[in-house]
């Protein structure tokens, strides 16, 4: 990615321009260029860092962009990582009380004084639900980095799982 005009510097031209004309001898200019070479290296590192940050900021939690980010980072050669949204969710249970006189109530919920409440679903059923699945074949060795990037890109309050197998078609 080319450097933006805001940060473009030409160190040899800058050194030649700042040295008075009486002192512009080849040996002096070479010495000053050697002195500025560490700063030029730091400048190149800054430009690389800026390009990397701008690339990271271009990614978001959309399925296609998450897939692109994961493939760019972890599998640039083969691009095998796939993100699939969950198909099935727990069906809602509609609670009809007897007093409501609804036709064909699906479930009757009765809570009497002194009894434990009746839960219609177990907490494990809700905990095991995922909103999307990441298929990353052959990348089990990079599990920590993969989890970190998915957590950074995903929306809040969404659950996911990573499977290290090929994605089903």
Please write out the topology.
Blueprint: H1 11-18, H2 26-57, H3 63-74, E1 82-85, H4 123-127, E2 132-135, H5 143-153, E3 160-163
Parallel strand pairs: 2-3
Antiparallel strand pairs: 1-2
Task: Please tell me about this protein's structure.
It comes from Hymenobacter glacieicola. The structure is a single chain. With 169 residues, the chain is mainly alpha-helical. It has 2 domains: 5-57; 63-89 and 120-163, no CATH class. It is built from 5 helices and 3 strands. The chain has helices at 11-18, 26-57, 63-74, 123-127, 143-153; strands at residues 82-85, 132-135, 160-163. Strands 1-2-3 form a 3-stranded mixed sheet, with helices on one face. The model has no long low-confidence stretch (mean pLDDT 85).
């Amino acid at each position: 990615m080319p450097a933006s005009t805001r940060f473009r510097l030409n160190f040899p031209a800058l050194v030649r321009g700042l040295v008075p004309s009486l002192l512009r001898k080849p040996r002096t200019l070479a010495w000053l260029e050697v002195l500025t070479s560490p700063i030029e290296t730091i400048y190149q590192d800054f430009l690389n860092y800026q390009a990397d940050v701008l690339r990271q900021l271009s990614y978001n939690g959309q399925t296609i962009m998450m897939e692109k980010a994961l493939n760019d980072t972890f599998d640039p050669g083969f691009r095998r990582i796939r993100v699939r949204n969950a198909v099935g969710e727990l069906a809602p249970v509609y609670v009809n009380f007897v007093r409501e006189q609804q036709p064909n109530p699906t479930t009757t919920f009765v809570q009497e004084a002194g009894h434990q409440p009746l839960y219609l679903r177990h907490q494990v059923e809700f905990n095991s639900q995922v909103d999307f699945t990441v298929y990353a074949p052959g990348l089990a060795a990079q599990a920590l980095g993969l989890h970190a990037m998915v957590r950074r890109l995903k929306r809040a309050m969404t659950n996911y799982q990573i499977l290290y197998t090929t994605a089903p078609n």
